[in-house]
Amino acid sequence: MAEVGKIVNIMNILVTGGAGFIGSHIVDALIAQEHRVVIVDDLSTGSRRNINAQAMFYKLDIRSSRLEKIVRDVKPQAVFHHAAQMDVRRSVQDPVFDAQTNILGTIRLLAACEHAGVTNIVFASSGGAVYGDGTPLPTLESAAPSPASPYGIGKLAGEHYLRYTGARSRCRWVALRYANVYGPRQNSSGEAGVIAIFAQKMLTGSGPVINGDGRQTRDFVFVDDIVRANIAAVKSKKNGIYNIGTGRQCSINTVARLVARAAGYKPSIAHGPAKEGEQRKSAIDSHKAKEQLRWNPEVALEEGIEKTVAWFRQRKAR
Ligand SMILES: NC(=O)c1ccc[n+]([C@@H]2O[C@H](COP(=O)([O-])OP(=O)(O)OC[C@H]3O[C@@H](n4cnc5c(N)ncnc54)[C@H](O)[C@@H]3O)[C@@H](O)[C@H]2O)c1
Predict the structure, then answer these.
(1) In 3-state terms, what secondary structure has residue 101?
(2) Can you give the residue range of the structural domain that contains 89?
(3) What is the pLDDT of residues 95-137, one digit of tens each?
(4) How far is the CA of 69 from the centre of ligand 1 (A)?
(5) Is the CB of 21 under 6 A from ligand 1?
(6) Is there an atom of ligand 1 within 6 Å of 284 CB?
(7) Fewer CB within 10 A of the terminal residue: the chain, N end or C end?
(8) CB of 41 closer than 6 angstroms to any ligand 1 atom
(9) Which numbered atom of ligand 1 lies nearest the CA of 187?
(10) Cβ(86) – ligand 1 distance below 6 Å
(11) Ligand 1 mean position to 299 CA, how many Å?
């Protein structure tokens, strides 16, 4: 369970995507703080196993016309919007589906929030996808966004709709641009989540493969730190866009070595062909979140990887 600051007043809170990797950790932390939590999730990539038994759960697509009534009935004081199509490759292959979920679904949710008088919305955006290649590293929020995929375009559009809705309805809004999030419950069969993929493969003895030379870098942030950022966003009473990462680049070779050490995996790790169009380097600067949200990443990569591998090991044993 993440150690997080407390939202003092007990609230009704809606978490979209609350059966997924990040959303379910947010739900657990909110329930531990005794908030009343409602989850909307269509279980397309999320899982019933992740759903906190004390949350109310609606199996629903955020694009559904039923969403508005649910939001009106729940009357949430805060909404954490994490439901999304989050597969970058799928967004390239099927940009219409990506936009339907990530842009139209977000518009539908925001309209429902406006009608229900929601006063706080936190939106899960993406540092890696919104900035694109070529920005100075670690990238600041002030860098011109240049998304290199439909997924990144959709996240940027979501931020604009959020800001617009906030201004229209006097609702406080925060978009958190996450770096590469990792931790327990991450899907190890998706295209993202290299730490989950390596952990799963190393623990089952099926050799992981590093794409290209492995010197490409990413900024890895542990899911408990993401939970704290979401809670800090609601507590801050600020509006704005914040990077949520460590500011540090870590190569895929280093990550593979750390996961292998935690998993007790000895064989050498194979390299395959580089992925076409893959971003070479990425890291985001989170000083703004430090100053305005009083948020700092607290979990070191080695510790986070150990916790993640321990979770995959335990799941394998069940
Ligand atoms: N994991 C990362 O590194 C990362 C980085 C940047 C941003 N994000 C964002 O964080 C959020 C959560 O991502 P995650 O890593 O937990 O992924 P995830 O796939 O585990 O969670 C997404 C959840 O949304 C649900 N969902 C998808 N489409 C839906 C729809 N139309 N209606 C209702 N529910 C729907 C899924 O079933 C799933 O439970 C997403 O918005 C993602 O874009 C994630």
Answers:
(1) helix
(2) 12-179+221-244
(3) 999 999 999 999 999 999 999 999 999 999 999 999 998 899 9
(4) 22
(5) yes
(6) no
(7) C
(8) yes
(9) 20
(10) yes
(11) 22
Tokens at 16, concatenated:
């979209």
Is residue 88 a part of any domain in this protein?
yes
- Do the domain assignments include residue 227? yes
Q: Is the peptide bond before 95 cis (omega within 30 degrees of 0)?
A: no
Cα of 267 from ligand 1 centre, angstroms: 33
Q: Is the CB of 82 under 6 A from ligand 1?
A: yes
Question: Could you give the residue numbers annotated as active site?
Answer: 151
Query: Within a domain: residue 226?
Result: yes
pLDDT at residue number 207? 87
Distance 61 CA to ligand 1 centre (A): 12
What is the chain's length?
318
What is the predicted pLDDT for the residue at 191? 74
* CATH number of the domain to which 158 belongs: 3.40.50.720
Helix, strand, coil share (%) of the chain residues, nearest 5: 45, 20, 40
Token match 């925060």: residue? Answer: 174
- The series of mean pLDDT values per 10 residues for the chain, 318 residues long, is 74 98 98 98 98 98 98 98 96 97 98 97 97 95 96 98 96 98 94 93 93 97 98 96 98 98 96 89 97 98 98 90
